[in-house]
Amino acid sequence: MEKITIKTTINAPIEKVWKYFTEPEFIKQWNNASPDWHTPAATNDLTVGGKFSYTMAAKDGSFSFDFEGTYDVIQEKKYISYTIADGRKVEIIFEANSDIVEVTETFEAENQNPIEMQRGGWQAILDNFKKLVESSN
Questions:
Q1: Which fold has domain 3-135?
Q2: Confidence (pTM)
Q3: In whole angstroms, what is the distance from residue 52 CA to residue 31 CA?
Q4: Residues in domain Activator of Hsp90 ATPase homologue 1/2-like C-terminal (predicted)?
Q5: Is the pLDDT of residue 137 over 80?
Q6: Domain locations in the chain?
Q7: Residues 104, 127, 72, CA angle at the centre, nearest 5°?
Q8: What percent of the chain is predicted at pLDDT more than 70?
Q9: Which of 15, 23, 39, 95 is spaced 20 to 30 A from 76 at the CA atom?
Q10: pLDDT in tens, 66-105
Q11: Quick one: which H or E segment has residue 92?
Q12: Terminal CA-to-CA distance of the chain, rounded, Å?
């Protein structure tokens, strides 16, 4: 299975980056790949064996789906790995250097959409995350 890696550098302390990445109230604000989509609901049990579910929906109401998974490994403020409901694996590395955090996400590609489309969608979501963290106090 092909793996795709995306990354971003965020100008914020690791505590804030971790909080915004893992708490549902923030997830709902950044978890969309384009302005015509949103995340109206999110739950997150950030424990090994815990589950998360983010409802991703078109703002016009035409389509929605739940992005769900189970946590395999959690190293607070450093590393998360989880298995998506369809069996694919995802790893996220948080590398903090004073008030700059590099976030690297690697995920197994699915077979329905082209690799570049998958990379672009996941990168757009990560870019939204960066924007939210850096723009809020």
A1: Alpha-D-Glucose-1,6-Bisphosphate; Chain A, domain 4 (3.30.530)
A2: 0.95
A3: 13
A4: 11-134
A5: no
A6: 3-135
A7: 40
A8: 100
A9: 39
A10: 999 999 999 999 999 999 999 999 999 999 999 999 999 9
A11: strand 89-97
A12: 40
pLDDT-based confidence at 1, cuts 50/70/90? confident
Q: Do 85 and 100 touch, CB atoms closer than 8 A? A: no
Query: What does pLDDT average to over the chain?
Result: 97
DSSP 89: E
Output the CA–CA distances (angstroms, integers) from residue 51 to 2, 77, 84, 94, 106, in the order listed: 24, 18, 10, 20, 19
- 């998958």: which residue's tokens? 118
Q: Are 47 and 74 in contact (CB under 8 A)?
A: yes
Q: Position of tokens 């694996």?
A: 89
